[in-house]
Amino acid sequence: MSWQGTDWQYDPDISEIAIPINITDNYVFNIEDVYTVFHNGDVTTMYLCTPVMDIPVLGAFAYTTDIISIEIPISVISIGDFSFYRSNLQVAKISPFLNYTDGTFPQLTFIIYWDITDLSCVLTKTEYEVGEAFDYSTCTVTVTAYDGTEYETGVVTDYEVVDFDTSQAGEIPLKIKYNGTIYTTDQTISIVLYPDVFNKDITTILYQNNTIDESTGQIGGSTTSKICSSESIQIPKSKYKYIMLNGLLQNTNALNSEIFFYDENNTYLGYKSWYPNSSNIVYAPIPDNTKSFKILLNSFSNEDFTSSDLSSVTVTFAISANDILLTNYTWTQNTGNDSTGAMDTYANNRIACQNYISIPTGSRKISITASTTSNVSCKNFGYWYTNSSYITYWDWVSSGTQVNINSSATRLRIGLCRNDNAPITPSDLSYCIIRFT
Q1: Which residues, 6 or more positions from 203, have their beta carbon under 8 angstroms from its beta carbon?
Q2: What's the sign of the alpha-carbon dihedral 367, 373, 379, 384?
């Protein structure tokens, strides 16, 4: 089919009424200038629709029982309902981004597209968690088509993402199936495995000597004893429900902090104070719909300082308030003294955490999961303490095993050993998580 006058657009507010072409008093179009249908080598002119309010509208091919196939140029961007009502149309060659409805073509019409010369996509999300399905709302697919005369580019939605395997961490190319053809795009998807507890070092982000207003969440007046993050820190995954900050100055003084939460539109949701010397505070809950946060830090001793005085600032995200990531705690190659609870004897096949870990109120059991960088699981032992003295110990158990908490204990320390008893150093530790239940 050849088509002239390609500024055809369908107005849904205009009703289509089929009128035979043999009406002599047709003042709407010059038929031969508008379209011509080729059928079995013969030129067959069809018919138009009545104009409404003197607005000319290209009409339907309704009741055209002799029409078998039609080719619509790519410059035609819209066709109305019932355009081929009760016709015998079998094949329609159309633009990939032509706007039409379920009622435009007969049910058994085979739809094919003009030649696709290019397909590309833009992603707003390139990172997925292991096992996560593709989010079509984050992908915009654009194709370029050619009908032998001109090229046209537009956005399409009837595509399928294929070979999207998120069963294991790594990187995969994004493949899109469109019109029966699979295209490998230039987009790469990262598949990541987020642990139950996730640490992020935020020491080197941008800080400034200002405060943050607790009522508005806005960065305010300058100060010499506080610094705040001038850039937002993203929550890495919506499954994380708790957050903790741990900051130190280079003089080893601890830092108090306030965490200011914001949604995806940067609307302020509230704040949470964090004091490192508070007892039995593990994580601050993250408000629902939080996408990012900013922090305000001040010295525990109220001394003046700037961002250059920072030694470290770490944010910890967790699924549960009762999970603690111990990986970045202080580990040394030691074994323990079962009589005194001291960890002061060197052992090349054991490492011990030198920090005391507070037991959250109401906890009855613990389980410790640990592994080396070479994916060797670690068994664990530990010691129970009151606030001031050693009580007793628990003997070696395998990774993930639940241990009853001593009823008098308020603190604990742990040690690790590879399951195969091979030598281990602190740098060999990949992760260590303690869960209180």
Answers
A1: 310, 311, 312, 313, 314
A2: negative
Q: Phi/psi at 87 (nearest 5 deg)?
A: -95, 175
Kindly state the tokens that stand for 244.
Answer: 């903790």
Residue identified by tokens 């309902």 is 81
Strands (E), 62-217: 69-71, 91-94, 110-113, 115-123, 127-129, 139-146, 151-156, 160-162, 170-178, 181-192, 197-201, 207-208, 210-212
The predicted-structure confidence for 120-158, as pLDDT tens digits, reads as follows: 999 998 988 888 899 999 999 999 988 877 788 888 888
Domains of the chain and CATH, by start: 1-113 (no CATH), 116-192 (2.60.40.3630), 197-318 (2.60.120), 331-436 (2.60.120)
For residue 99, give the nearest of 157, 21, 175, 176 by alpha carbon.
157
Q: Which pTM does this prediction carry?
A: 0.48
Residue 353, token pair as written in the block: 């955490």
Q: How many CB atoms lie within 10 A of CB 375?
A: 7
In the 8-state DSSP scheme, what is residue 78?
A: B
* pLDDT tens figures, 339-368: 888 877 788 899 998 888 888 888 899 999
Q: 221-236 burial string, b = 16+ CB within 10 Å, else e? A: eeeeebbbbeeebebe
Give me the phi and psi of 118, to 5 degrees please: -160, 145
